[in-house]
Structure formats: structure tokens, C-alpha cells
Amino acid sequence: MKAAVYYQNGGPEVFRYEDVADPVCGLNDVIIRVESIAIEGGDLINRELRPLAKIPHIVGYQCAGTVDVVGSEVFDRRVGDRVVAVLPWGSHAQYAVAPAADTWIVPEGLSIDMAAAIPVAWGTAYECLFTAGRLENANTVLIHAGAGALGLAAVQLAKRAGAKVFVTASDDSRLNQLKAFGMDIGINYAVDDFVGKIMSYTSGRGVDLVVDSIGGKTLASSIQSLAYGGRAVTVGVSGRDSEKLDPVMLWRGNKSLHGVYFPSCLDAEHQRVHYRVSEILEAAARGEISVVIDRTFPLKFAQEAHQYVQSRRAFGRVLMRP
Ligand SMILES: NC(=O)c1ccc[n+]([C@@H]2O[C@H](COP(=O)([O-])OP(=O)(O)OC[C@H]3O[C@@H](n4cnc5c(N)ncnc54)[C@H](OP(=O)(O)O)[C@@H]3O)[C@@H](O)[C@H]2O)c1
Q: Measured from the CA of 146, which atom of ligand 1 is nearest?
């Protein structure tokens, strides 16, 4: 099969479009003929930093397509099922192997492209806001990088829950687009001090919750933006900034910091989160939420596709098609 592979970590230029061996189906796995590949924010970080599982390595942890082979211990998936899958690596290819337990049947009425963009971004946004963040009606929430896929999911879910939604992005044009998705107040954190802006918009109180996918200095400022007893949820390191946090800053104001990691099939929480993602897929099929796709590249242009995501110009998810 064809795949976008690399032999060492680095920028988008490390990708090669090559013939590689087809994946092998384990007892509890399915093999998917891939039709749509979501470029997840974590795929960029993995390509830059994380050790390669194989050489050459196929990055990528989310794709959708049609089941081609079913492992002998799998009884709830059939050849021909349309599924979306989360996998440890291997989505940037014509075929991918995934644990069957980490697949979802794509509901009737939902496109393969929309489905490909849902589980991690939306499941994680839900966990940040409601499980770790305990968001309630009338709370105030600050969501960083609102124009990214996780951010756009969080903005919509927070608005549906009745919260007042503050959002950051690094340019005004993408902030303007976010109004249609539930943003109440936008802050361009590339030019404005977002802590000062939040304090001024909330009359010095701060917000109840921050969803922080940026990390480093931004995470420290997120904690400064919190109201008394507020919660910061750390979920990503998109800022690539290794500044360490001083936990003493949580003391004054009795603030708390929570981590969120989208559970894998080994986690005790798997069943609960898997069910939640099924509900989100159904809501998308009914048109109740908007899954935003910025654009789609052919897989053979994985270099250009990753370069585009890295440029921070995308609004929503960027996909590739084998
Ligand atoms: N813990 C978990 O289980 C989990 C699950 C899902 C995602 N994540 C993490 O959450 C983050 C967001 O994921 P995503 O899929 O929503 O990513 P995405 O769609 O690619 O969006 C990332 C956003 O981050 C912002 N950003 C800030 N600094 C950046 C930089 N140096 N390079 C690129 N983007 C930068 C950009 O918005 P602005 O330009 O507006 O700042 C961009 O839109 C990633 O770090 C990902 O690893 C973690």
C-alpha cells in the first residue's frame, strides 16, 4: 500500500510517499480501507518529537473508512462497515489497523469526512469541559485556540451548556468566524494580554474554567485568569514552550489544575468515553453540531498538508484522502 512515512523526526519535509507493507490484523483488530484522514494537532507534535514505533514510521491517530478485515476475536464489526477509528499510529496510509474497541460505526447521514474529524477533538473537548472542568450553566469559560478543531468543539459544547464563552485565537479573521459557533467574546492573544482582557471583561473576577491546549507560559497566564476556586484544564502543548509551571500560583484563590488525556482502550474510562463519542457522532448526523472541515489534501501531499496546519491558518480540521 501507499503511505506517507518518515525515517526521522522533524518538520513536514520529513514525509516521503512510499510503498510499504500492508498492516497485519491482530485478533482484536480491524483493518480499515482508509477514505479520510484527520490531521490531529497531536500528529504534528508526534512527527516533531515522539519516538518512531517503526522505521519507516506512519504517523496519525484518527481516520475513517470501510472495514476490510476483521480479527478473529471481534464480533461486533463486519467487513463493509463504515467506521471511524482512533489508533496509536498509522492513519496516514491507504490501510490502517485499529483495535476494534476504538472504532465507532459511522451513523446513517454522517459523511465519512465529518466522522473522521470527530472522536478525539470532540471527545476530548467534552472531557475538558464537563468531566474535568465541571462546567455548569452560567459559568464563564476561556477556551484557547478556538479556531483549532478541539477549540471549535469546545466552543460549541460550552455554548450549548449555557456558559459565557471567551475564546482566544492568533488572528482577528479567525476570531470573527468563531462568533457563528457560540463565542461571546474573542481575544487575539498574539497581540493582546489575555489575562488583562479577561480581568477587564469580568470586572476583575476572572473566569470559572480555562481549557488550555497551549501550555508553557500560556498555561501560567491561564491560571492567572481564573476566578476564586476556578479550574484550569491542561490538555495540550501546541505552543511548544517548555516553561515549567510553579504550582504555588494555584494557592492564592484556591485554584485547581486538571489534566485530560483522551482515553485509550486500556483505560478504565474507555466505556464511558466511547459511549459519549457515539452520542456526539449521532448529534453530528442530526445536524445539531457543526464539524468544521477547512480543506482536504491528497495523502501524497502530506508535507503540504502538515505545513498548512502548522501555519496556523486553518479554521477547523484539515483532512487528507488516500
Ligand atoms: N490530551 C489529549 O488527550 C488531547 C486530545 C486532543 C488534542 N490534544 C492537544 O490539543 C491541542 C489542539 O489539538 P487540535 O487537534 O485541536 O489541533 P489543531 O486543530 O491543529 O489546532 C491547534 C491550534 O493551536 C494553536 N497554536 C498555538 N501555538 C501553535 C503552534 N506553535 N503551532 C501550531 N498551532 C499553534 C493554533 O491556533 P492559534 O493560531 O489561534 O493560536 C491552532 O489552531 C494539540 O496540542 C493536541 O496535541 C490533546
A: 40
Task: Give the position, in ligand 1's atom list, of the atom nearest the Cα of 259.
Answer: 1
Domain boundaries of the chain, sorted by first residue: 2-117+291-321, 121-259
**Residue pLDDT, tens place only, 97-120:** 999 999 999 999 999 999 999 999
For residue range 49-68, list pLDDT tens digits in order.
999 999 999 999 999 999 99
Q: Looking at the domain 121-259, which fold is it? A: Rossmann fold (3.40.50)
Q: How far is the CA of 237 from the centre of ligand 1 (A)?
A: 7
Q: What's the gap in Å between 270 CA and the centre of ligand 1?
A: 23
Take residue 247 and report the three cell numbers written for it.
Answer: 504550582
Sheet holding 185-188, edge to edge: 185-188, 164-169, 140-143, 207-212, 226-234, 256-259
- Whether cis (ω within 30° of 0) applies to the bond prior to 298 is no
In CATH, what number does 2-117+291-321 get?
A: 3.90.180.10
